[in-house]
């Protein structure tokens, strides 16, 4: 009988190799003498080719002002009318509106006086220019009123990119993000029973 030492156990093997399976029988061939075979792999298509991501349509601000808060992120599903941004809008106060009207009248009067230069004295022209400068200074010192306006989602979809951040200045044509109206397929797994 031959004695083989394995990992953590000892086997006694009979002289005949027919008693043991082939993988346990000793072999006279060394591994480095075996012919080398090269593995060949074939590419197998597992479905349709992956298409590039959908770009989507830009979501326009439709407001003028400065972004105060952002309420959405990339990959978020939004519904029509859902709040996306809070924008600070500057509005003229009543006093600013009154001063602007006065300034417009004074500019019109100064233009009329300048057209009548030979008939108008220099003192009248200087007085009109001084009134105009004083009204401009008053208007520059006025503080505007602040109001909040909101940007909402125009349709249902997925936000594919965000281009607005707090502090950004917006015009009505500024894009604040990109919205894809193609919703991904529902891949939710449903369980028939819970144990």
From TrEMBL:
Keyword tags: Coiled coil
GO cellular component, one term: cell envelope
Protein location: Cell envelope
Gene3D superfamilies, A to Z: 2.40.50.100
Organism domain of life: Bacteria
Stored InterPro entries: UPF0194_transport
Family annotation (SUPFAM superfamilies): HlyD-like secretion proteins
Family matches, as PANTHER family: BLL5650 PROTEIN (PTHR32347:SF23), EFFLUX SYSTEM COMPONENT YKNX-RELATED (PTHR32347)
Protein name: Uncharacterized protein
Organism (species): Hymenobacter perfusus
């Amino acid at each position: 009988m031959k004695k083989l030492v394995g990992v953590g156990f000892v086997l006694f093997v009979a002289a005949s190799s027919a008693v043991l399976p082939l993988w346990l029988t000793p072999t006279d061939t060394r591994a480095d003498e075996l012919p080398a075979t090269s593995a060949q792999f074939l590419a197998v298509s597992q479905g349709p080719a992956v298409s590039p991501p959908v770009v989507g349509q830009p979501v326009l601000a439709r407001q003028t002002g400065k972004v105060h808060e952002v309420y959405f992120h990339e990959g978020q599903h939004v519904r029509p009318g859902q709040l996306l941004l809070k924008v600070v809008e500057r509005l003229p106060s009543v006093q600013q509106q009154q001063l602007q009207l006065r300034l417009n009248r004074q500019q019109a009067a100064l233009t009329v006086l300048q057209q009548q230069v030979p008939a108008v004295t220099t003192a009248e022209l200087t007085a009109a220019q001084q009134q105009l400068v004083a009204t401009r200074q008053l208007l520059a010192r006025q503080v505007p009123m602040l109001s909040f306006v909101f940007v909402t989602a125009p349709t249902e979809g997925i936000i594919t990119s965000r281009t607005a951040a707090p502090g950004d200045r917006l015009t009505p044509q500024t894009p604040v993000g990109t919205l894809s109206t193609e919703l991904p397929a529902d891949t939710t797994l449903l369980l028939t029973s819970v144990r």
